[in-house]
Amino acid sequence: MSKISETGTKLEELHPVVEQKSVKVEKLKPIFKRVNNGITSQEIISTYSKLITDYEKKEVVNFPVVYTIGAFSAKNYRCHRTGLFTSTCASFETSSGDHVAYRYLVDRVLGDGSYSEVYRCIDRKTETPVAVKILKHNMQIFDEEVQALTKISQLDPVGKSNCIRLLDHGKFRRHHYLVFEMMHCSLATYLDDVKNVSVQECGKMMRSILFALDFLHQNKIVHCDVKPDNILMSSSDPNNLKLADFGLATKDPTDVGDSILQTRHFRAPEIYFQGIITSATDMWSFGCVVAQMVLGKPLMAGRHYYDQLALIEQFFGLPPIPYYKRHLHFYGDYPKHCEKFYDSVTRKPFLRLEMIYHAANPKTGLPGSKTLKDVFPDPEQFVIVEFLSRCFKYEPAERILPTFALKHPLFFQEPNL
């Protein structure tokens, strides 16, 4: 039987992934012995009590099988003394060498966001690297995300949907956590390094995300936050991407109401106009991601709520009249970044940019003053212009569906004969 250190890491025949991790492995005594691929919490208390804190002595009884207790030196003394593991910004307090739920050995932080932090951990039950997402205290999105991911797992038990796989979930020290398969990096990180990709590379890479969106569309699920940060890449296959972070996922269709969903640069018009969320909402965001991959920067990088809408209108003009009339409660008589004037001779109305807005945004033009061809002028980029023109429609029902997008020349691949 292999010997195990204080952190629960095998000292004999280390897993190759574990050898590369940043957690310091110490040879400490006494040494655990595994019992049915773990040890009982009773044995932890009776035999190894010097390796855990007083708080953990009371806590560990709720875990029948223990796979790791982490390094004693990695434990936050203040947190264990007070029993409070939440920082002033509502984040979970942990560090490299500590553990989550007596199973996941914390290696390092992979990323953080408004709702959670993600850690690279070693699953001491399976000896494999995993990504553990720990939500901030009292975040209400946990149930929705678990429900969406559980439904995806049930519909796709073999994991062919190109949606990230949920391996485990639970609550530990008043914080909900979710455990996912480990991926290489996010598309956002990749683009930070390479800046942009060719049209051909973009088509090959994003085809896998279209598979994910098609799967969601067929099963009436809207991701509602498609962006480079939520697209993960595999280390073994750069063209095998997966859609992640289902914290805002909802059913198709859903009323927007007063919610401000999606990240601003990828936000569809119906979110602004309190319309209906459907699978077409994800296709608008998908188009924004495709454009950013080739451009090397967001196509429409608004600085705030109204500025983003102004950039949408700059490319695609004012919404169609039926759409416009449905949303007069937001729009008024004309866009908020414009002023209405009348020709002195014909008395016909025309728009000008509001003076203060124009001074702050000199590069933004009037509605309809710019086209996608202005941004993608190369003849080789015509295919991307044609595809984006099918994504960027004010009316969600007019946007291209993932099923048909897979047959578009930008993404279509001839089957191997």
From TrEMBL:
* EC number, UniProt record: 2.7.12.1
Binding locations of ATP: K133
| Highest taxon in the source lineage | Eukaryota
Q: Which reaction does it catalyse?
A: L-threonyl-[protein] + ATP = O-phospho-L-threonyl-[protein] + ADP + H(+); L-tyrosyl-[protein] + ATP = O-phospho-L-tyrosyl-[protein] + ADP + H(+); L-seryl-[protein] + ATP = O-phospho-L-seryl-[protein] + ADP + H(+)
Q: Cite the entry's keywords alphabetically.
A: ATP-binding, Kinase, Nucleotide-binding, Serine/threonine-protein kinase, Transferase
Q: Which GO molecular function terms does the record list? A: ATP binding; protein serine/threonine kinase activity; protein serine/threonine/tyrosine kinase activity
List, for all copies, the residue spans of the domain called Protein kinase.
104-411
Matching entries from PROSITE patterns are given as:
PROTEIN_KINASE_ATP, PROTEIN_KINASE_DOM, PROTEIN_KINASE_ST
Where does the signal sequence lie? none
InterPro entries from the entry?
A: DYRK, Kinase-like_dom_sf, Prot_kinase_dom, Protein_kinase_ATP_BS, Ser/Thr_kinase_AS, Ser_Thr_dual-spec_kinase
One Gene Ontology cellular component: nucleus
Q: Which family does it belong to?
A: Belongs to the protein kinase superfamily. CMGC Ser/Thr protein kinase family. MNB/DYRK subfamily.
The entry's protein name is dual-specificity kinase
Provenance organism: Caenorhabditis remanei (Caenorhabditis vulgaris)
Q: What is the lineage of its organism?
A: Eukaryota, Metazoa, Ecdysozoa, Nematoda, Chromadorea
